[in-house]
Amino acid sequence: MQTKNKYNKKTVSNSTKGFTLIELIIVVLMISILAAIATPSWVLSVNIQHLNTAQNQIYRAMQETKSKAKLEKRTWQFSLREKDKVVQWAVHPAKYEEFIPSGIHWHNLGKNIRVDKYKNDKGEYETTLDSPGNKTVTGPWKVQFKYQGNTKGGDLGRVSLTTEYTGKIKRCVIVSTLIGTIRTGREHSKSKDGKYCY
Question: Please, which of 70, 155, 158, 168 could form a disulfide with 151 given CB 3.0 to 4.6 Å?
Fold first, then answer.
């Protein structure tokens, strides 16, 4: 009769189970390098998407202003301001005695969206909507549409938007004709009429 010794079982060496410490370090290092390469591109992509969304909101708000002016047969106003580093817009009936009436409802754009208020290298402002006392740098800004949908008093201009993190990447909404044509634009490397966003 043969007896089995419970201690004679073949054991598997621990060195063949799992990964070695060096292999784990190499994998973690490779993942870290790939993440470091991809993260800036991802952040830039997200910021550009926020900028596109803000541009679309401004464009739709201006179109709404124009539509309400035609529908109600009176002058309506699109207003824009920066308050506590947040860009806000409003659509409301125009009041001739106030540049921007009090008590209107403001809507916020994204928290990192900024109005481009500074002169470019051609010495021109990229944001040129009407502002009180022509204070393009500080705002607030407005454009008014009359009952036929055209701009009031030749209010032409543009709002140029950027973010804190995208630098020269801009999106703009332009009121380009006296009949109230509204269009969107983006930054270009060459200027046109002194502006880079067109």
Answer: 155
| Cα-Cα-Cα-Cα dihedral sign, residues 172, 177, 178, 181 | negative
Backbone angles phi, psi at 75, to 5 degrees: -75, 130
CB 129 within 8 Å of CB 143: yes
DSSP annotation string for 75-142: -EEEEEEEETTEEEEEEEE--TT-SS-TTPPPEE--TTEEE--SB-TTS-BS--SB-GGG-TTT--EE
CATH code of the domain in which 37 resides: 3.55.40.10
Is 13 domain-assigned? no
Overall number of domains in the chain: 1
Domain that holds residue 53: 20-197
Q: What is the DSSP letter of 20?
A: -
Question: What are the pLDDT digits (tens) for 115-170?
Answer: 998 888 999 999 988 888 766 677 899 999 999 999 987 788 999 999 987 778 99
Unique residue bearing structure tokens 């801009």 = 170
Q: Is 9 within a domain? A: no
| Residue 15 pLDDT grade (very low, low, confident, very high; cuts 50, 70, 90) | low
Token pair of 119 as six digits: 């002169």
pTM of the full predicted structure? 0.80
Question: Where do we find the tokens 């870290």?
Answer: 32
Which residues does residue 119 pair with via DSSP β-bridges, in sequence order?
125
Determine, yes or no, domain membership for 37: yes
